[in-house]
UniProtKB/TrEMBL annotation, chain A:
Organism: Streptomyces albireticuli
Keywords, ordered alphabetically: Methyltransferase, Transferase
Stored Gene3D superfamilies: Vaccinia Virus protein VP39
Source organism superkingdom: Bacteria
Domain Histidine-specific methyltransferase SAM-dependent: 75-338
Name assigned to this protein: Histidine-specific methyltransferase SAM-dependent domain-containing protein
The keyword Manganese is assigned to this record: no
Transmembrane portions of the chain: none
Entry's Gene Ontology BP terms: methylation
Pfam families according to UniProt: Methyltransf_33
From TrEMBL, chain B:
Keyword list, A-Z: Membrane, Transmembrane, Transmembrane helix
Transmembrane segments: 20-39, 51-67
Domain of life the protein comes from: Bacteria
Protein name: Uncharacterized protein
Organism encoding this protein: Streptomyces albireticuli
Amino acid sequence: MAERDQAVQRIPEILRDTGWTVVLVGEEQSGKLAQVTAGLRRGPDPSGSGKLITSGFSYWGLESTVAWAHACNDLYYPVMRESIGSFSRRLRAVADRLPAGPLHYVSLGPGTGQKDQALLRYLDRQGRTGYYIPVDVSAEMLRLGQREALEHLHVPPADVLPVQLDFSLPANLDRLSTLVRRVVGDEPVVYSLLGNTLANFDSDTQLLTLLAEKLLRPQDRFLLEVASTAGQDEQAARAAAQEYENSPRFREFVTSALMQYTDLQIDLNSLTCEGLVEDDRALLVRVVYRNRTGGTLELTLPDRSTVPFPDQDTIRLYLSRKYTREGLEKMLVDARVTKAGETHEVGHTAFDRPAFGLALLLLQGGEAAPGPVTGPNPFRD
Amino acid sequence: MSRPAGLPARLLSRLSRQFFAALTLACLLTALGICVWWVAVADDADSHFEPAASGLALVAAVTGVYAERRAAARERRAQALHALADELVKNTELLGAGFAPLDPGAPRARVHPRLVQSATDAALVSGVFSEPGHEELLTLLHRWRDGVHDFNRRLDLAELRTYVSEVPAAELLAIDEAMHRAGGRLDGLRRLRAGLEELLRRRYAEQPGVTARLDRLG
């Protein structure tokens, strides 16, 4: 036991060699395969609500990580490139609302790490950088993101603690919360969920509620970045879907999970992006793979079992949303978080096209949901 | 403790200004008639001077005291109406664009424009509409002035509330919603403004310049 302690104590010294990174693995990875398999075993449903690759697993594994990195730099996928390119500027608009003093940073789903680098650079310039804890279900994504996030920064390797964990599970969030509090004590932490990641989850509001409830203390803040839309009609929904359809790299990324978990011969022409209006809260984009062979195919899953894939049956590969202002406000109220700062930016669109943009919100939790306003109101008789 | 006024004083107080104007004019015209008759019956040339001089003085009194005063009052009334019409145009703009509801997505404390009422105050204080026939306008101007004063005061309080300390977005929206609600203060002011415009167009349309100014409202 004493020897093991000594080995752990030597890790900072080992990390000075840039070839090494440490990752804390927080859950049994073999159990994750069962989740993927369960999603692909669902019954036939030509409408796109049957078989699916569950959120998070689109990015899980080496192929998906590489494909995602390529998609983020695709000239035909400008939304993600603009989102990354403008992040530093948008961050400055809310950064003055961050807690004063040293700040620890927990990045939920760091992606390619470029946005994390912007935030860490902002803290680094002010000498306020604390621990950097990127959290992702994919070890490959963690390593890729970490390398990008820390480039040219003065963050000691020993202050970086990547955690491989699926943060959409309540039990995992309890463990993550315990870990973070052990590491930082009572000092403030800024958590982030950037790149419209929240929109990839079916139960986005429930996930945000869970994150706020399990992670946020009154002194902590939460940076949330989501895609936004000004209009909410069929034309806007179609335009939202087209953003994804136009990018060959995105199509490769979104089918990479299917290649990884099944033996399906991928036909990129069988991929469709559907834009739908989701109540009054968002535009919903579903990327669906449809069997157009005219016959039933057999899918072999990672556990060697087979699943019939009939003609016109679908596999939902990816889910995304663009939120309306009202939908976003309602989600924040339901998740019991309040805004400490925000910036909304509309992307470059033609005057006759729907205006899509990005919202970066600095949230705080640890408070009860706002009840009815009872303060003095000069216009209430 | 004021003494009860005597019967003659009470009777006098009940007589209108028009009665005294008519009495004055009747006296002057009677005196002028006497002067004309005096000139006619005077025996010699020297005796003509006194009734002629008195007659001319009386003519000057009739035109100067009464007719000139009425003409000056008409001019002042025209100026007051022009100022009221201009003020109405300005307030119509403010009540439109100046009080747009807050963006629910990004509510912020803001300084609202104030409705102007200097022309209304001047019109009321100067007494240019004190002659008979302007009672409806006077009543409406008083209601408009009180409404604007009350609304501006509430704006002061709302801005103090939202600027002195950090106010949650929900409270900003609640104040804005209460201001804009149907049947609320802003709604009432807009109805008063519409009534004032309708009265100026209907009752004072023949007054040169009033309709032309109001037509700028579009």
